[in-house]
Amino acid sequence: MDLKNIYQPIKKDLKIVDDLLREAFKRTKNRSILKLTDYLLGSPGKRIRPALVVLSAKAVSCHKSRDIEAAIIKIAAAVELIHLASLTHDDVVDHASLRHNKQSVNRKWGDDVSIALGDYLYSEGFELISSCGNADILSCISQATKAMCEGELIQICQRDNFSLSKRRYFIIVKKKTASLFAASCQAGAKTANSSAFLEGALKNYGLNFGIAFQIIDDYLDLVSEKERLGKAPGQDIAVGEMTLPLLNLLESTKVNKRPTLLRLIKSKDKRSLKEIKKRLLHFDAVCGMKKSTLFYVNAAKATLNILPDSVYRDALIRLADFLLRKGFPL
């Protein structure tokens, strides 16, 4: 099962989202900006966040007016713009040179352009949200964006803190990653005029989905290859960020051998990364990571039990299962 099959019920909606993204970018007549935005759209990501907006909206109600349908598309496009903005800034912060198997914006045009482009994308996203005229949705996504930025800032401040606790790790993950996933689902439900009960369930789905997503992302960053990642592996460890795979590995290592492992982590070179990868791929470590991911995937799926049966609810369930297979293919 791949994303194309999962997205089948909302294939047309996501096409309209992409069209709206291109339309939003083309409002400017500046050739330099158009060149940058065309470059971004030339390598689209998985569009998971806009898919969550649309699926959540349709999962709570299949009968909506044209105005509501248009608002759903706008919100879906807006969260993708906010996501793209965060990635553009992240690549500067992480000194990344690749994104989606091609040069990152900062590598191609420099940090100054990347920072300014990220700001531009944020402004485009919030302009789309504002055009819907719904203060609750604006507040929902604004709060998530603030949490996302706060999580990023905390993470940067915790670099080279090799005694980072798991509690602090999950605080960072919930803010930096899971908050926008949760807001995507919540905003979708709000746009469809859902009940507060269903809206809360979808928000919790997005939160747990986002935590699982980040755990897998952190794991793959250490054990996967560049071709699969679309970027250079080992970026987290290169900038001194302690992630759950490393925290688990330290925890499972005998006390007298932890200093050796810490030296490997602190060295941040390719040889050390290779050795850490070898240790992580040990059977017990893989099982530990899969167990953590499965907990949040199952928690996400459990929140959907109160939703009415529909192809959209089924797609949300399959999307959560897709995460698990992405990280731990059979």
Give the key terms.
two-stranded antiparallel sheet; 17 helices; globular; Farnesyl Diphosphate Synthase; mainly alpha; single chain
Instruction: Tell me the overall shape.
Output: globular
| CATH architecture assignment | Orthogonal Bundle
Fraction of residues in helix: over 70%
- Looking across the biggest beta sheet, what order are the strands in? 1-2
Order of helices and strands: HHHHHEEHHHHHHHHHHHH
The overall pLDDT, averaged over residues, is: 92
Distance between the termini: 12 Å
Protein structure class: mainly alpha
CATH homologous superfamily designation: Farnesyl Diphosphate Synthase
- Figure out the total of helices: 17
CATH topology: Farnesyl Diphosphate Synthase
| Strand percent estimate | under 5%
Question: How many separate structural domains?
Answer: 1
User: In total, how many beta strands?
Assistant: 2
Task: Please summarize the sheet with the most strands.
Answer: 2 strands, antiparallel
| Contiguous uncertain segments of 5+ residues | none
Radius of gyration: 20 Å
CATH class: Mainly Alpha
Written description of the protein model:
The protein has 330 residues and is mainly α. It has a single domain (3-325), classed as Farnesyl Diphosphate Synthase. It is built from 17 helices and two strands. It has helices spanning 3-6, 11-25, 31-41, 48-60, 66-93, 105-109, 111-130, 135-157, 166-191, 196-223, 226-229, 235-238, 244-252, 258-267, 270-280, 283-302, 311-327, and strands at 98-99, 102-103. Helix 10 (196-223) packs antiparallel against helix 16 (283-302). The longest helix has 28 residues, at 66-93. The relative contact order is 0.12. The model has no long low-confidence stretch (mean pLDDT 92).
